[in-house]
Amino acid sequence: MGNKDAVPIFFEKITTLPGDALPEIKENMYINITQDPPADALEIKRKYLRIIPYLLGLVLCGFLLAVFQIVVGSPHGDLVENIALVLFVAPGLAFFYFAEKLHDHKALSPKQEKEIEDFCRKDAAIAAYCAKVSLLDRKLIKAEYDACKARIEDL
User: Fold this and answer.
1) How many angstroms separate the CA atoms of 44 and 76, rounded?
2) I want to staple 104 with a disulfide (CB 3.0 to 4.6 A). Which of 7, 17, 26, 143 is the partner?
3) In whole angstroms, what is the distance from residue 43 CA to residue 79 CA?
4) What are the counts of helices (DSSP H) followed by strands (DSSP E) for the chain?
């Protein structure tokens, strides 16, 4: 039909990788420990925690509407089923999206905090980053722990 090697324009950035390397999957929150820590990490977590209950409420409404249609029935059954499906699926997908983003903002376990102390002894950049975080009057979050761990593994 045409050139089999032709690549659509929207795939150009993905396919220009050197060799046969696959693109890396980036984590939800990118932390660079050589830069200043994000000052709004706790505000982002609060925002996600405020959004999630509303999404779960919409999912519950969709579920209850489906149960109503099954138990009572309605002359507009197809419409009620479609509305229930929309109320269940769309907020459900959004819920999983925000819940996954919330994983990066989890507090560290005591074991991870001890590992961070070891990382601070091994690398001055990690120690400086931890000092900057403590100046913000907050503790490290999981995304920052993962970035510190990745830096130690690269050393």
Assistant:
1) 41
2) 143
3) 39
4) 6, 0
Under a CB-based contact definition with an 8 Å cutoff, are residues 102 and 48 in contact? yes
- Residues 61-92: tens digit of each pLDDT: 999 999 999 999 888 889 999 999 999 999 99
Q: How many Cα atoms are found within 13 Å in the side-chain-facing hemisphere of 31?
A: 24
Per-residue pLDDT of the chain (155 residues; tens, 9 = 90+): 444 433 333 333 344 444 444 334 344 567 888 888 888 888 888 999 999 999 999 999 999 999 999 999 888 889 999 999 999 999 999 999 999 889 888 999 999 999 999 999 999 999 999 999 999 888 999 999 999 999 999 87
> How far, in Å, CA of 123 to CA of 147, rounded?
13
Dist. CA 66–CA 53, nearest whole Å: 20
Q: Quick one: residue 96, left, alpha or beta (phi over 0 = left, psi -120 to 50 = alpha)?
A: alpha
**Encoded tokens for 18:** 């050197």
Rounded Cα–Cα distance for residues 135 and 8 (Å): 48
**Distance separating alpha carbons of residues 132 and 126, to the nearest angstrom:** 10
Q: Is the pTM of this model over 0.70?
A: no
Residue with tokens 């925002």: 47
